[in-house]
Amino acid sequence: MSQPQSHLLNCPDSNGLSLFESLPPELWDRLDRIKEVRTYADNAAIYQQDEFVGGLFQLVEGEWKVMHFDARGNPQILEFLKPGEVAGIVPYFEGRPSSFSVRSLRRSRGFFIPGDEFKHWALTEAAGIDAVLHHFGTRVRHLMDVAHGLSLQTVPERLARVLLTEHQRRPGTSLLEFQEDQGELGLHIGCTRAAVSRGFKLLTDMGLIRSTFPVVRLLDIPTLKGMAKFRPDGMAPRAGPLVAVEDLPSRLR
Questions:
Q1: Does 79 fall in a domain?
Q2: Of 21-30, 37-46, 144-153, the least confident
Q3: Taking the CB of the first residue and of the last residue of the chain, which one, N or C, has fewer CB atoms within 10 A?
Q4: pLDDT per residue as tens digits for the range 75-86
Q5: Which element (helix H / strand E) includes 222?
């Protein structure tokens, strides 16, 4: 049986970058000594929307979901965080209440790193400034990608984008296994659980995937990319979709 992770993770995020990669050894040791290990139950809050954040949170085991609630309390899942990824740095540096919540998806474990020690390094050392600017840049790019994903007209197009994003996180395999259920995927792409189920069925009927959700095998990645207007850098290509919107059933548009 493997031992629980007890040290900060220095692994790349979904954009291939690690916030901690350029830490000098002495600061790495200091942060590693002052971190707090925290365990979260299913759907427990790591921090809440409109709450001040006192530092950084690194996911170690499990998965977290980043959510925004509108004025009527309706949720939108912005992204799912994987082990090694960091939350809290944007609202901490901004010094204002967070504009989103982070919650545990099932049970999870993470580290809390008090912000003052990290902030001093990040604002005074060239390597720290570079690391934080890279992180902020990936946040901006991610928000642009979320906006583009929601602009896609059909549920199958949005699902294709989700599948390709997961594939990018796990290079070298066409077999994906989701921790999220279909209702949570629906909150992520702006539709109902039933629409997600119909979308997976259509992609299966088109021969693009084989789905026994939560396990999905990608069968035709080039066509999925055309359908989702997907590029690895998160920007939309100029070419249109390979599958026309009018060719999809009206209930999936």
A1: yes
A2: 144-153
A3: N
A4: 888 888 888 888
A5: helix 221-228
